[in-house]
Design brief:
Radius of gyration of chain A: 39 Å
Helix content of chain A: 40-55%
Number of strands of chain B: 4
Structural class of chain A: alpha/beta
Strand content of chain A: 5-15%
Oligomer: heterodimer
Number of helices of chain B: 4
CATH architecture of chain B: Roll
CATH class of chain B: Alpha Beta
Distance between the termini of chain A: 93 Å
Largest interface: A-B, 16 and 15 residues
CATH class of the largest domain in chain A: Alpha Beta
Number of domains of chain A: 5
CATH topology of the largest domain in chain A: Rossmann fold
CATH architecture of the largest domain in chain A: 3-Layer(aba) Sandwich
């Protein structure tokens, strides 16, 4: 009988949906609900929970009492009238009641679905709790008797409550029947539990409460309304907040108590906990929609956060108390729990939520206005404090990942890749002319799936990483033992709910990790054909599927608010806005926008052309003056149809600025990239937007497109936030929210919480595809079979003059630095110190890079050389003059010369075909020079010999005949001119002098560069091995490239040039020219900065790195221009290092990427000068002993 | 062999394949700049019939700086001291980078044939040589028999 009695209510709970909680999506409806509840309390208000409770009571009590209880509890039941509270204009904000659709977008972590209309409350479980009696005497309660829990009322809320009570009307047993009022000094009035619970927004309550936070006492009464006692605070303290906010409802009965109560005697209670509908409603926190970030608002924000945190903690405690376990949770979360890492997380967040106010109040408007859309986002998540968002800018340096951390990230990449070998292969459509490799076909599969939103392809239709799945339980039938352990039997798997232990949110809908973001990050290593894969995708998915065209509800709702008139204000919030649909949905977006570095634009254009069947895909370069009205351009049909627009980051940024400035003007005519919605946006080399505050990043975020792709070989360059920017661009929820990302990734990571990496891994798994050249396919074969790469580090020795000049510069720089440092002025002269360093680095390449300027510009020379030591600088000038061959030493003429020998030599010079062997180095003479005695040597050798003799204070005699002494200025160079015309410069050599002697004896150019000579020598050797060899020569200094040019011209080597000063067209021509088949070797001189990325130069297979750049990755990138897909020869990399110079130390620093690198790269504007100063000391060798690794 | 200048490689090669008469030189296995050298005493000199061991080392700066050479075999010679050090101008200030190991060793061999007591290194030997040449020569022969055969 009891069982029967118990079960109908349960079923009724499900079958009569509108009992207490009719569909309520708006405030109005809430009101209706309330009145509905008022109207028919007796008819339908058989509160299931109370019924159940009472039936439980039945198990212990007499039948009659149970009947009575039953009847009464129906009236007592608070749920029926709870909504009446909503009428009270306590809560003026359009908050939770605004409905789930609204919630969805801004609050990313919230599940997308609404609360089912038939849901009123769910039984969570029960637990045994100790209470103390507050009353004396018999008859208050007995084992099995039902109790009602309540919270003392807060005074300030009285008017509210009164209204409530009126509304509640007769249904309330308790009204007016206050027993023991005197005991309730604090509360004064009693209210129904329901009214307490239904108090919608905790924040206002909090505010009114102010400082004297109400105790956490939960009292309970018997079913006749008499107060019996209170729950132990220790045991049930956590319930307080939940009761106050209406998240839970309680019912209970006495398990055991003394027959006659005395104050303080123990009463053992069984407490049943229900999650109320309220729990699943949105907690108010989208107040940031109101643009003006007033002080008030900031405060409120924080209060909400606090409320959320309390709720989260309380729910956590409750769950563990009841023994509710998730039936499903993310592995990641699980792991985190196991290690208590979640705890760390919470406390760290707590720290943030607790402390921000004093910091913030002085600048109330900060973080909400124009200071950046990012800041606005800081408020998105209740679990986070946006304080972090404010701090982050200053924290940059600290967030740099060190090498070890980068390694960890590598591991993560690898883990995230694990399943990828099993991806299906998709063949591109026939219009795509290239043949894809298997791994590229896999990428196509993955990318297509990402675009269609088909997540199953990689099986991550999993639970949102931060959510746990729980099931409500079936309420136990009466008579069964109160057993909290074996809960499995009672779990009702059909009724699930979800909890986010991080934010405290609850949801009834399944929170998938599946986001609506279409697109992802294709992060294959360099040279794997990302462009090619993307092109195949463009072919494969030409048109938007119809399904994607109707804009999602949320957007439609938001759209009017964000329309033009208000735009200026809304721009910030635009940052987090979902993809806005274009106003006229007639035009189904079909174009793809490719944003890439300027040097790659034409390559994209060319390759798309080559890969596509004629007439299928046409691309347009949106660049420079070629910009037109976008709509008109894309509206073209037939032959002029444009499918892909290619633009550069720079162009985009300027377009963005222009658009921002003009879009609100009435005269604005549209036609910019921002006025069009693209089918697909592709960022090539997407690490260009790694700095989320940079203009170019914002420009990319603002683009409208349905599908978004980021192509980059380095999604994380050197800090985790780099990844964030990409995620934000992709609009990947929830990670695309800055505060969210920081709270769950950056901050834990910096706190060295290893679990942060799990989160990163999770993110990467969901949206990133990365393969490396070394990866193997499912058959164990390398996915990319690239020819081997040989790296040869040539450690060269300065020639004497170079060494002297270098030493001179270095000593001076060192002295100057020491002096500045001693005076404490190093910081203020930071830029000039960096400039000195730069000089040293240039000097290593070629002394003329430094010297030439000094001769031309005395002032500059003075500055460089520090006027204080004038005599020394004149020394240097002498030196320069000497080595430039300017010093006169006419007395060399007096040396006797063996005329017969001289004649013989001169004759030989004219006739001989082969180069003679040098006596000193036993090689063929290189830079043959003639000594006064007409003996010949390599220039290097004789210069070295003269230097050695000088060092030893002995006359430098001719090695062969001991005549002398020889001076450097006596040397004459012998040049065998090659009858060749440099094809590019058109400069002819000996064009009109064919009949003249090929040999010219001239002044020796002593200021030569060791590196340059090594290069020329190597090129000569390479030519003999492969007469059509193509070579890349990288340098970071274009002035050095100039010098290389001159030398190559002299040597008759064909060369081409590629640097940042060239126009897009020139660049394209250069690359094209370089790719042509030739009968002679061609050298392409590239500036590292302009040509280091993206270019595909597989026609070459030799690379020379002439100097050392601060960042090794950049150099790697440069090498990968050649060592990439399409390369079928072995690749040879030669890099030149000069022994005993800054280069060695730069390489050292390169390995431990430190502050100086950033300082140098950012032009010395870094705040972190202290750290870089330490680095400079290292570079000057002042800080550490350089004894180790003296290889260089 | 990497890191060794081409000149040293060439010289070594030639020394091994085409050594001058009465002279042998071979690099040690563990250090290719370090040579084991033997020089035969020149005919009609007090050192005739003797095989003298020397060691030769090519410094890092070679050929800008001369090789370092030292007798290992005890020898009675006015220009060679007890420690085997040699007084020879081309090993000092008259060095020229055009000279080679081969020429240095030939010079040493020549020095054995033409001792120069006026520029002595071993003073006692030089004095003896000057004052009583035949006795000194006899002594040299004796030492050759004793140590170099």
């Amino acid at each position: 009988m009891e069982i029967e009695e118990a079960s109908p209510p349960i079923s009724s709970k499900r079958s009569s949906p509108d009992l207490f909680f009719p569909v309520s999506d708006s405030e109005e409806e809430d009101v209706i609900t309330a009145s509905g509840a008022l109207a028919g309390p007796s008819s339908s208000a058989v509160a299931p929970s109370s019924t159940a409770t009472s039936s439980r009571a039945n198990g212990h009590k007499t039948q009659s009492q149970s009947q009575r209880t039953n009847g009464k509890s129906a009236e007592i039941e608070f749920f029926g009238s709870q909504n009446s509270d909503d009428i009270i204009p306590l809560d003026t904000r359009p908050n939770a009641s605004a409905g789930p659709s609204k919630i969805k977008r801004p609050l990313s972590q919230s599940p997308p679905a609404a609360i089912p209309s038939d849901f009123e409350q769910g039984y969570l479980g029960e637990f045994v709790c100790e209470g103390w009696s507050l009353s004396k005497g018999k008859g208050y309660c007995s084992p099995g008797s039902k109790v009602i829990f309540e919270r003392p009322k807060i005074k300030v809320d009285e008017p509210v409550i009164k209204g409530n009570e009126k509304m509640g009307g007769p249904a309330r047993l308790v009204n007016g029947k206050v027993v023991g009022t005197q005991k309730k000094a604090i509360g004064g009035k009693q209210v129904t539990l329901g009214s307490m619970m239904s108090k919608k927004a905790p924040p206002p309550a909090k505010k009114t409460v102010g400082k004297p936070v109400i105790d956490s006492i939960i009292r309970f009464r018997n079913d006749r309304g008499f107060e019996v006692g209170r729950l132990s605070v220790q045991e049930a303290g956590f319930l307080t907040h939940l009761l106050d906010t209406g998240v839970i409802a309680l019912s209970g009965h006495v398990i055991d108590c003394p027959q006659s109560l005395s104050t303080g005697s123990t009463i053992l209670l069984n407490v049943k906990v229900y999650l109320a509908r309220k729990a699943f409603e949105k907690v108010e926190k989208d107040g940031r929609n109101k643009e003006e970030g007033s002080f008030w608002q900031e405060q409120k924000e924080t209060t909400e956060e606090e409320a959320m945190r309390k709720r989260k903690d309380a729910l956590g405690a409750l769950f563990s108390r009841i023994g509710v376990k998730p039936i499903r949770s993310n592995a990641l979360l699980l792991a985190q729990k196991k290690n208590g890492a979640a705890q760390i997380n919470e406390t760290s967040l707590q720290h943030f939520t607790d402390s921000p106010k004093p910091k913030r109040s002085p600048s109330p408007s900060k973080g909400s206005n124009a200071s950046g859309g990012e800041k606005g986002k800081g408020k998105v998540s209740a679990a986070n404090s946006d304080d972090e968002a404010e701090d982050e800018d200053s924290g940059d340096e600290a967030e740099k990942l060190d090498e070890e951390q980068m390694n960890e990230i590598d591991t993560i990449y690898r883990k995230a890749q694990q399943g990828d070998t099993r991806l299906e292969e998709t063949n591109p459509p026939d219009t795509f002319l290239y043949t894809l490799r298997p791994y590229q076909k896999q990428a196509l599969t993955w990318m297509s799936a990402r675009e269609k939103g088909d997540e199953s392809i990689r099986d991550n239709n999993s639970l949102h990483p931060l959510w746990e799945e729980y099931a409500f339980r079936k309420e136990q039938t009466v008579g069964q033992p109160i057993e909290i352990e074996d809960d499995d039997d009672f779990v009702d798997p059909s009724r699930k709910f979800y909890w986010n232990p991080y934010s405290g949110e609850l949801s009834l809908a399944f929170p998938t990790s599946n986001t609506r973001a279409k697109g992802g990050i294709l992060a294959d290593a360099m040279g794997m054909g990302k462009t090619c894969m993307m092109a195949s995708l463009i072919h494969a998915n030409m048109d938007a599927e119809v399904s994607s065209t109707p804009p999602p509800v949320a957007e439609a709702e938001d759209e009017p608010a964000n329309k033009r008139p208000k735009f200026k204000q809304v721009t910030l919030s635009n940052q987090w806005r979902a993809i806005p649909t274009v106003a006229k949905p007639v035009n189904v977006p079909r174009a793809t926008l490719v944003v890439c570095p300027v040097s790659l634009a034409s390559q994209w254009h060319d390759e798309l052309g080559k890969m596509s069947e004629k007439g299928t895909i046409t691309s347009f370069m949106w660049y420079g003056n070629d910009r037109v009205d976008i709509e008109r351009l894309l509206a073209q049909e037939g032959k002029k149809k444009v499918d892909v627009i290619i633009t550069s980051y720079g162009t985009l940024a300027s377009e963005y600025q222009k658009w921002r400035k003009n879009k609100d003007k009435p005269t604005y005519e549209g036609g910019s990239l921002y006025d069009h919605e693209f089918l697909r946006i592709v960022l090539d080399e997407a690490h260009n937007i790694k700095n989320r505050t940079a203009l170019v990043s914002k420009a990319c975020y603002e683009l409208k497109g349905q599908r978004r792709w980021a192509l980059t070989g380095t999604p994380i360059v050197n800090r985790l936030d780099d990844l964030y920017s990409l995620l934000h661009f992709l609009r990947l929820e929830p990670w695309g929210h800055y505060s969210f990302f920081r709270s769950f990734v950056t901050i834990p990571f910096l706190n060295q919480d290893p679990k942060a990496l799990n989160v990163v891994q999770y993110i990467l798994e969901s949206c990133l595809l990365r393969r490396e050249k070394t990866m193997r396919d499912k058959d164990g074969k390398l996915i990319v079979d690239l020819p081997p790469k040989h790296v040869d580090i040539q450690v060269l020795d300065f020639s004497r003059p170079e060494r002297q000049i270098y030493k001179h510069l270095e000593d001076r720089a060192k002295r100057r630095f020491i002096q500045l440092d001693a005076e404490g002025r190093a910081m203020s002269n930071y830029t000039s110190i960096l400039a000195m360093l730069m000089k040293l680095r240039q000097c290593v390449d070629h002394p003329l890079l430094v010297l030439g300027k000094m001769n031309e510009d005395d002032e500059f020379a003075e500055k460089l050389l520090d006027a204080e030591t004038g005599d020394e600088s004149s020394n240097l000038k002498d030196l320069i003059a000497l080595y430039a061959g300017g010093a006169k030493s006419a007395d060399s003429e007096k040396e006797e010369v063996d005329h017969a020998f001289a004649a013989k030599v001169l004759r030989e010079l004219g006739e001989q075909e082969t180069t003679p062997i040098c006596d000193i180095c036993s090689n063929e003479m290189f830079d043959e020079v003639l000594l006064p005695c007409y003996h010949r040597c390599c220039q290097d050798c004789i210069v070295g010999w003269i230097g050695t003799c000088e060092d030893q204070n002995k006359p430098a005699l001719c090695p062969s005949c001991s005549k002398g002494p020889i001076k450097l200025s006596d040397l004459r160079s012998i040049q065998r001119k090659r009858k060749r015309v440099n094809p590019l410069t058109g400069m002819s050599i000996n064009e009109n002098e064919e009949d003249q002697k090929d040999v010219v004896i001239g002044k020796v150019d002593l200021v030569q560069s060791t590196k340059l000579r090594a290069l020329v020598r190597k090129l000569e050797r390479m030519k003999s091995e492969d007469p059509t060899v193509k070579t890349l020569v990288f340098s970071q200094f274009t002035s050095f490239l100039d010098l290389i040019e001159t030398t190559l011209t002299r040597e008759g080597v064909k060369w081409l040039r590629f640097d940042g000063s060239m126009s897009q067209a020139q660049r394209a021509t250069t690359i094209e020219e370089f790719g042509k088949k030739t009968k002679e070797p061609v050298v392409l001189l590239i500036s590292l900065k302009a040509g280091g990325v993206g270019l595909n130069l597989t026609m070459a297979n030799h690379v020379f790195m002439m100097d050392t750049w601060w960042n090794e990755a950049i150099e790697q990138q440069a090498i990968d221009r050649v060592h990439r897909l399409g390369q079928n020869k072995s690749v040879y990399v030669t890099r030149y290092i000069i022994k005993g110079t800054v280069e060695k130390r730069i390489m050292k620093i390169q390995r431990s990427k430190t502050a100086l690198v950033n300082a140098s790269l950012s032009g010395g504007g870094s705040k972190d000068k202290g750290a870089s100063l330490a680095d400079i000391k290292k570079i000057f060798g002042l800080d550490e002993d350089d004894s180790e690794d003296e290889v260089y | 062999m990497s890191g060794l200048p081409k000149r040293i490689l060439k010289e070594t090669e030639r020394l091994m394949s085409d050594s001058p008469p009465g002279i042998s030189a071979a690099p040690k296995d563990d250090n290719l700049r370090h040579f084991d050298v033997t020089v035969a005493g020149p005919e009609s000199s007090p050192y005739e019939g003797g095989i003298f061991k020397l060691e030769l080392f090519l410094p890092e700066e070679y050929p800008m700086n001369p090789p370092k050479v030292r007798f290992l075999t005890k020898i009675y010679h006015p220009n060679i001291d007890k420690l085997g050090r040699i007084c020879l101008d081309i090993l000092k200030d008259k060095w020229s980078p055009a000279l080679q190991i081969r020429t240095v060793l030939l010079s040493i061999q020549a020095l054995l044939g033409a001792p120069n007591p006026d520029d002595p290194l071993a003073n006692d030997v030089a004095q003896n040589w000057k004052e009583n040449q035949s006795a000194a020569i006899e002594q040299a022969r004796e030492w050759t028999r004793q140590y170099a055969q």
